[in-house]
Design a protein that fits this description.
With about 180 residues, this protein is mainly α. The protein has eight helices and no strands. The protein is about 65% helix and about 0% strand. About 35% of the residues are buried.
């Protein structure tokens, strides 16, 4: 499949928009971000996360998230309810955590980069499914790249970006080379 000139433009715009989401979204305002962050924090400290009773404290969650909107006097450390997740995303994030002393933005930017792989694979999949129709491939790619809530999730610390990348890679392999 020959690459269309529009793909680099879409990827560049996605990276700019994703980076802006990562920068401008206040800390912990992405769904479940504190719990995903704490998974990485536990790995970085040398501990395999294990979900235990009390990791999901609904009363504390309501108080911190909904009543106080993450007021600084509340710690995010008790949010450990994502400990049941498979570890690959969090293992990829651990060196970033170490390198940037746990800073949230670099971790979000790694998710944005993984999202760029999702966008690229969307183009490749559409090209295999719709050969000879590069504008439809670009339309599908733009949809994946610019759907606002999708970009917001790809610009947060959570395992969605890697999960989507793996699924897109599998789908790309399944649609095979059609021509």
């Amino acid at each position: 499949m020959r690459q269309h000139a529009g793909l680099p433009v879409i990827l560049l715009l996605y990276l700019v928009i994703g980076t802006l989401f990562a920068i401008l979204t206040p800390p912990w305002q992405a769904p479940d971000e504190p719990a995903h962050y704490n998974y990485v924090r536990q790995l970085a400290a040398g501990h395999w996360p294990v979900i235990e009773p009390g990791d999901y404290d609904q009363d504390y969650l309501v108080e911190v998230v909904f009543n106080s909107h993450f007021a600084p006097q509340y710690s995010i450390e008790p949010f450990e309810y994502e400990d049941y997740q498979p570890p690959l995303y969090y293992l990829l994030q651990t060196p970033v955590f170490w390198l940037f002393q746990g800073a949230l933005l670099p971790m979000r930017l790694l998710s944005v980069l993984l999202g760029a792989g999702v966008v690229s694979l969307a183009y490749a999949i559409a090209g295999r499914v719709l050969p000879g129709r590069p504008y439809l491939s670009l339309t599908a790619t733009a949809f994946v790249a610019f759907l606002p809530q999708h970009v917001a999730m790809l610009a947060a610390v959570n395992n969605d970006s890697l999960a989507e990348l793996i699924i897109a890679g599998i789908l790309w392999g399944l649609v095979g080379n059609r021509g």
